[in-house]
Design a protein that fits this description.
Elements: H1 5-16, E1 37-46, E2 50-51, E3 54-55, E4 62-71, E5 75-83, E6 98-109, E7 114-123, E8 136-145, E9 149-156, E10 166-176, E11 182-193, H2 194-197, E12 199-212, E13 215-225, H3 229-234, E14 244-252
Antiparallel strand pairs: 1-4, 1-14, 2-3, 4-5, 5-6, 6-7, 7-8, 8-9, 9-10, 10-11, 11-12, 12-13, 13-14
Length: 253
């Protein structure tokens, strides 16, 4: 596994050292400072980085890091990074070892029982060789009901830098397992890549997870259907979209 720890650490240090993120609002009537910004993040290790049903690491482990600064208004800015590997054995090396995704967004309540999260992400792959630039911009929204049910949609005008748009839609539910502390998640997604790659596919996710203080463990099974030859030629090989199980451990801070 080629883990880009130095690049991830540099990105985290750069964001955490931004002076504006540490500022507080003036003291309120009670004489106490009310934080204008809050900074948090996570570090994760996963046995396989699976995104929308497709492995991004050829089935190998990944180390991932995220940092987010959130304003009291609900606006936030942050970045996420992971090691990736798109080069199958025998293929020409694309030079890509890292995915680095800066983003901005807003989340907040919309009605008494729903929450909206909308964010714009620039997905980049630093160090790519000529002819292997897959960077793209995507706008994504997620609407959650009763903290259990959710629907989402994402749009990119030039997905994977292929010259066509991509639309991803999903819906899911996450429910607690009684008083055990465990929760289960089920999700169905559809990725419309007809314009960019000439085909579409469905993806499925079943998961179980539990929080252990600041540490969370998630075990997930993912699979796809209708991932055909056109997508295999334009994107990842169809073998990377097969059913697979991945274990992720996440530490939040």
């Amino acid at each position: 596994m080629r883990a880009p720890l130095s690049l991830i650490a540099l990105a985290l240090a750069s964001l955490l050292s931004t002076p504006a993120l540490a500022q507080d609002a003036p003291a309120g009537d009670a004489g106490e400072d009310t934080p204008t910004w809050e900074v948090g993040g996570s570090l994760a290790a996963t046995s396989d980085y699976v995104w929308r049903g497709v492995s991004q690491t050829q089935g190998n482990p990944a180390l991932q890091a995220e940092v987010t600064a959130t304003h009291a208004s609900g606006f936030y800015v942050g970045a996420w990074a992971s090691n990736v590997d798109f080069t199958a054995p025998g293929d020409e090396d694309d030079g890509i070892d890292v995915e680095f995704d800066p983003y901005i967004g807003w989340s907040g309540a919309v009605g008494g029982n729903a929450e909206l999260d909308v964010f714009l992400t620039r997905v980049t792959y630093p160090g790519h060789r000529d002819g292997f630039d897959y960077a793209y911009t995507e706008l994504e929204g997620k609407l959650t009901f009763a903290e259990k049910f959710y629907v989402g949609a994402a749009y990119s005008p030039d997905i994977f830098n292929l010259g066509g748009h991509g639309i991803y839609m999903n819906a899911g539910v996450s429910l607690p397992l009684g008083d055990t502390g465990f929760d289960v998640t089920a999700q169905l997604g559809h990725y419309n890549l007809n314009d960019a790659a000439g085909d579409s596919y469905n993806d499925y996710l079943l998961g179980i997870g539990r929080n252990f203080g600041p540490l969370r463990a998630d075990l997930q099974y993912t699979d796809t259907s209708s991932y055909g030859e056109a997508l295999s030629d334009a994107l990842d090989d169809a073998s990377q979209a097969d059913g697979r199980v991945a274990l992720m451990l996440t530490w939040a801070f």
